[in-house]
Structure formats: structure tokens, C-alpha cells
Amino acid sequence: MKKFVFIVTAIMLCLTFALAACGKTGGNGGNRGNDGSGETAATETLTFSQNEERTGYIVTGDTGQTANIVIPAEYEGKPVVAIADSAFAYSKHKPDIVSVTIPDSVTEIGKNAFYARIDDLINVNIGTDSKLKTIGNNAFSGCRALTSVYIPEGVEKIGDSAFNNCGSLNTITVAAGNAHYSGAGNCLIDIETNTLIRGCNKSVIPGTVQKIGVAAFRRATMTTLTIPKSVTSIEKYAISDSAITKIVYYGASGEWDTLIKSSSKYWNMGNENVEIVCADAQTSNILVAYFSATGNTEKVAGYIAQATRGTLYEIVPQVPYTQEDLNYNDSTTRATEEQRDPNARPAISGSVENMKDYDVIFLGYPIWHSQAPKIIYTFLESYNFSGKTIIPFCTSASSPMGGSASNLHKLTNGAVWQAGMRFSATVQQSNVFTWLNGLEY
């Protein structure tokens, strides 16, 4: 009997140790997954304190040397709702932190939470279902290796200098439903004040921005910054300690002078020799040519011209198209018959001046019966595009770009065609800017 009890006891002890090794014992939640599912092991050396309401826990730091920190969604049966002030700041936690995964349960990232993690913190993982509402002052300030930022839909408050000195940022994404912040043009923008809080190395500042905020591009590694005419002031340290050597301003020289007078005198501190090139002193090698029957393609062309400083050229038919001409349900309408006729070449009113001066052509058109309108054929056959780069874009209700662009290639001997993009009628400026950011021309 004693032998039997000993054997049973030994088996139970073995099972206990095995379960503990597999993270099945629960305990302080150290082995729970990020969402409580058990799929991702949480960091076991994290420290916690209860919030004032005693309804959840706040992560206060890490006593270990974990490079990839995973914060659990629960601790001792209660949700983890916040990251404490200075919880992972370098002054408090010296070991390297390469990445941190923040569970959906966290609603607040405290001030200085990851302050001055200068060379180590690269990734901050926040889910699309995150309940995050507040990012405190200087929360990620000094995280110079951080490459991307995601702001969930529910974020209502981003504190001062939250991303100051984050010079390696290449991507800034804000959830589409966020009512307080926008990620248009790869920028972090306060919607209420139209202030650009933080830019990144691939930012294209939208024409809605009125103020470039404090240290918005500090330590950025980009060399050229383009500023639209909508900007009326630039705050201190906006380009300090950055690699920016040239600013292209959409407005005239006098408008730039007015802008600077209303800006902080320290806006370019440490970078006083930056070159300023204004619209009245520059020429562009980019042409944005487009044909638009209903205004959708024209809108996209305008966004492209704004972002690239390109010259807009509208392809205007000598005989304008009427609503009846565009009735796709009638096989006898002008547009339908032109698309059916391989030799149709509608005449164009006017021409591009000095086509030879343009090296890059953005070519826009609507999709008609799965193809580019025949007036685009007329345009391409009217000039020599040898050695030029052509980047097509189109608009449609649902039809893809399909083979519309490839069918145009044979009309432009010697031209270099890049892959194009199709946009819907509801396209936003930020969608166009995101596409442009990925191009090389």
C-alpha cells in the first residue's frame, strides 16, 4: 500500500512539474498569451501594481533581461490596463529591449514609458483591436531605432513629444476610424488643429496641414522635405539634428518669408544651413497628364501634382463628351463605339508645352469598357516618349486596371513604364500619398 501511494505521489509530482513547464498552471499570468489565449508566452519577469480602482493591473517594469517583451492581457485574473510612467525607460531598465508587444487590454501608455531607448527598441506591436486611449508625454521619446508607429482607432490623446527624436521612423499608420488623429501622407496629424505632430522619412505632408509641430522631423534621415502652401507656422526644433539639407516649398519666396516670420526662430536650430527652394525659383521634370470625364481622375491627378510638384495637364477633347456619350448601357453611344473601334483617335484640344523638359509622366484616365479611353491613345501618339518614365493611374467604380496600361506600352517606343494603380471614386488623399511613397522615379 505504501509503495502504491509513493508511486501515485511521484506521478502527480511529475505531472505538476510538466504542466508548469508548459505554462498551464496559471499563477501570475506570466505564461498567458498576449490576448490571454496562451498562444504567445508573456514575459515572466514583469512587475505589476493594481490601479486605483483595483479593477486591473499596471505593468511597472521588468526585473529580467528580456529583449522581446510580451505584456500579458491578464495578471492574477484581472486585465492589464496600463503601462506605468517610466516603466521601461532606459534610466530604470538598462538591458536592451528590441521589441514590445502590448495587449489589446491596455488603455494607457504612461509618460516616459519607453523614454531614451536610443539604439535598441525597434518594434512596438499594437493590435488593430487595441483599446488604447492615451499615449503620455515623451512615451517613446528618444527611441531612435523605432521604425514604425501604429495608432489605434480609440486613441484620444497623444502627449507632448511622444515620438520626439524617433528619427528611424519610416511608417506612421493611424486606424481609419480614429476621430482625433490622421495618418495622411505617412504623417501623424492632430485633426482638430491640423498640426503635424510627427513625420517620418517617407512623409508627404498633406495640403491640409497648417502647422508643423515641435520637433516633428527631429533626427529624420530624409534629405529633402517638401512643405505645402497650407502651412502657416513651423514650431521649434522641427528639423533639428536631422539629415534634411533641402526644403522645397510650394509657395513663392514672399510667402515663405511670411511663413518664417510666424514661426519659431528655433525651427531649424542646428540645421541653419538648410537650402530653401521655393516654387517661383524651381522647375519640375514631372508632368501629370490626365483625362477626366466625371472629375474622379482629375481629383487623383491633383493629389499627385501636389505631392510631386508636377505640372498638371488636362487632356481635353476637341468635342466634349456629354452624359449621353458616356452611357455604357447603350451600345450606340459615342464612348462605346470609340472603345470598340481599334482605329478611333478622338482629337485633343491644345498640347503640352515643352514636352522634352519632362522626364516623368504620370498618366491618368478612367476605365471605359475595361480599357483606357481612346483619347489616351491620341495623346501617346502625339509625342516622343523615348527615355521617359511613364507611371499610369486610373479610376473606376469597380473595374481593375487590368491590361489597360499594357495595351498602351506599344504606343511609346523607348519609354520605361512602371506598374500603375487603380483608385475608386471615394479615394482619399492619404491613399494616393501612400502609393506615391512606394514609387521610385
Topology readout:
Layout (H helix, E strand, L loop, with lengths): L1 H20 L24 E5 L6 E6 L5 E3 L3 E2 L2 E6 L15 E4 L5 E2 L13 E4 L7 E2 L12 E4 L5 E2 L12 E4 L6 E2 L5 E3 L4 E4 L12 E2 L11 E4 L5 E2 L11 E4 L3 H9 L13 E4 L7 E5 L5 H13 L2 E4 L1 E2 L16 H7 L7 E2 L10 E7 L7 H7 L8 E7 L10 H4 L6 E2 L3 E3 L5 H9 L4
Parallel strand pairs: 2-5, 3-6, 5-7, 6-8, 7-9, 9-11, 10-12, 15-16, 16-18, 17-19, 19-20, 21-22, 21-25, 25-26, 26-27, 26-28
Antiparallel strand pairs: 1-2, 4-5, 13-14, 14-15, 23-24
Helix pairs in contact: 3-7
Description:
This protein has 441 residues and is an alpha/beta fold. It has two domains: 25-279, Ribonuclease Inhibitor (Leucine-rich repeat, LRR (right-handed beta-alpha superhelix)), CATH 3.80.10; 286-437, Rossmann fold. It contains seven helices and 28 strands. Strands 1, 2, 4, 5, 7, 9 and 11 form a seven-stranded mixed β-sheet that branches. Strands 21, 22, 25, 26, 27 and 28 form a six-stranded parallel β-sheet that branches. Strand 1 (46-50) and strand 2 (57-62) form a beta hairpin. Helix 3 (296-308) crosses helix 7 (429-437). The radius of gyration is 28 Å and the shape is elongated.
Radius of gyration: 28 Å
The overall strand count is 28
Helix content: 10-25%
Query: What is the oligomeric state here?
Result: single chain
CATH superfamily of the largest domain: Ribonuclease Inhibitor
* CATH top level label of the largest domain: Alpha Beta
Distance between the termini: 84 Å
* Tally of structural domains: 2
Give the number of helices: 7
**Residue windows where pLDDT falls under 50 for at least 5 positions:** 1-38
Q: In this structure, how is the largest beta sheet organized?
A: 7 strands, mixed
Q: Kindly report the CATH topology of the largest domain.
A: Leucine-rich repeat, LRR (right-handed beta-alpha superhelix)
Question: In terms of structural class, how would the helical and strand content be classed?
Answer: alpha/beta
CATH architectural category of the largest domain: Alpha-Beta Horseshoe
